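Field guide to reading this record: the first block holds the primary sequence, the second block holds the structure written as discrete tokens, and the final block holds curator observations. Each block starts with its own label. This record concerns DUF4125 family protein, catalogued under organism Parablautia intestinalis.

BLOCK 1 — SEQUENCE
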Amino acid sequence: MIIEDVLAQLDELFAQHKVDLVEDFLLRRIDEAAAEGDTASLITLLNEIIGHYRETGETEKSISCCRQVLILMEGAGLKDSVAYATTLLNVANACRAAGLLRESMVYFQEVKAIYEKKLTATDFRYASLYNNMSLLFQEMGDYESACDCLERALGIASMYSEARIEVAVTHTNLAASQLKLGRYEEAIENLKKAFSIFEMDEDRDYHYSGALSAMGEAQYMAGNLDESARYYKMALKEIERNVGRSKAYEITLQNLNAVTEKLQNLPVRNRQFSSGMELCQAFYEEYGKPMIRKKFPEYEHMIAVGLVGEGSECFGFDDQVSRDHDFGPGFCMWLTDPIYDEIGEELQKAYEELPSTYMGITRFTTVKAQKRVGVFRIGDFYEGLIGLRDIPTTQNQWLFLEDYRLATAVNGKVFQDDLGEFTRIRRGILAYYPEEVRIKKIAREAALMAQSGQYNYSRMFGRGEKVTAAIALAEFMKHTMAMVYLLNRTYAPFYKWMHKGMKKLMVLPEIGDILNALVDFPNGDERIPQTIEMIVALIIAEMKKQGLTSGEDNYLDHHTDKILKSIPEKEKKDDSFKTALVNELVSLEWEAFDKVDNEGGRADCQDDWNTFSIMRKSQYYTWTDDMLKSYIGDFHRANDRGWNLITEKYGRMMESTAPLRYAQIRESLPKLPDVKKEIIEEIVKIQVGWMEEFAARYPKAAQNARSIHTAEDTPFNTSYETYLRGEISTYSDETLDLYGRFIARLCREDENLAKMIMTNTALLYGYGSLDELEEKL
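BLOCK 2 — STRUCTURE
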């Protein structure tokens, strides 16, 4: 028997998770080795099946095999050899698992005696001995001795670079003993070290499940019941995947059930988070900001802070599935090169000293994603995402950048950036592709959609190439989604989030639902080509709206020349993007406005879309694209957490129009920092002055608007000043910053925003000018 081949076959069974076949395989090979008189192979195979029975909880079979192998080795004259000691180690573990603790200790001591005679003090086999002895001490309740054994094992194993899995197992076992001694913070740190090693491998070692179970217990002890349940669930999956529903599975399931029951009996908790972004921003506010202020006060306004980059939470797509890795409290700090040279390393050290657990969530980071949070040079951060340290400057740079990289560079949220350098680059990228680049990318996607969907799918299926046909259909769907993002002037995220992100798009979001139907059709269904043509027709119709093509040809590839030839004409003027942004924002406002509950019942204006639309568009057509994008983002984030910005706006107005009612709801409104209030009041003061100037020049038009001053407020009349203050108070810090800069620019250019807005109102109502409106009133 060639034992190496047999062991390779055994490894393959484990790799394929065919645990149910292992016993039969080993028993047949044991019979073969016995029949051949191959004592060496027989000893190896008996050791293997002892370990298998131990892991599956079949203790009687395990102990029976232990007796056989010891008799066999003694008969072969191997007693007191290192090989005999190694088998004794396996036997000791089997006895421990069977509850024969005294016998187990005797065998361990015998192993130790042989090793001391035969091995050097730093031989790696000592690490294995101490590791296994620690498990026995754990069973006996002597956790101090267990920790002592494990620290010895760690000291030896760490000397061997090839023993990383053994080091990970030792960290796990040490954590388990520390938990029994109530040292759960030390245990969590050891388990993090174990995770960082286990997760280097795609196919993780069985012992990874032990680390997950231990972390479940650690989080339970720390009071983080949600996290405890999450780790126990992950452990169950790993145990079942590796050895099936064994005794270890049953014990872990019992632990999970106990945690779940305790969670169900808990009162509703006050502190919850609706998204990873909210968790991370709260973590920054509670721990990060005070740390910066205390340790780096002179640099506080030079450190940009936020959460941007890779990770579902940066896109707002995080859910229970995505939160099983690379998730938890954390944030980024971005520094210019000179500031990084002064404090970068020290700031990173201070960051690492922040709590790893917050609101019951512990950051769980894999090796592949270690540097998603922490301290960065601004240039390094952007270079890591898009390959450039600043805004792309040439057409080629834009053309060859992938959408998902750009999407990753501008997602998330900037919590603070007083210096503005990080945000300068961010806004430059957010401004989107130069139009010529966008059109070239649209032409490319049109050609690829035609090739994969309209041409290759049916041809491949007709030839019986079903796999190739399925690939062609998948390519068509991918390029369709990329096309929809381009038509929305929005960077497409990484492929696994492209479809999910389509729900937030304004142009052609319905294609996302059509793709859902398409993917449900059986391969070869006659409805697939029909649905492909339906999608293509929608794409072509939208391209016509955007002035990219013309004609009635429904084959996309025939449109590519027209798309490319549209570049010179499109470069003359293109305000369709702003229109799309304005329409999206007004729709979001209307949806929120429709849900506002008034004390006196539903207001008439809540059913007057036309007037609402004109009034709001009049204002927003004066805004910049960045302002529109930012406020749209405010609405999406508010909607994600179940908050109504319009309800908040009207609630804030009540401070003047209904003070008694306001006193009842004040605590439910987000608290505004004093600095933000001061900024708002400065802006309101400027705009009230503009409205006074407008009313003096256009009195008739002004009479049809709100009264100007807060002093004129009544329960039935809300002034322009009060309305403005209430609305601006709902802006996020980023939106308020953009709005403040916008107001400052208008002041420098001697423009009057009230007049600009009323001019738009006149035009939208069909008047030739504001002067014509004034004349006809």
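BLOCK 3 — OBSERVATIONS
The chain is about 70% helix and 5% strand.
Residues 585-776 form one domain.
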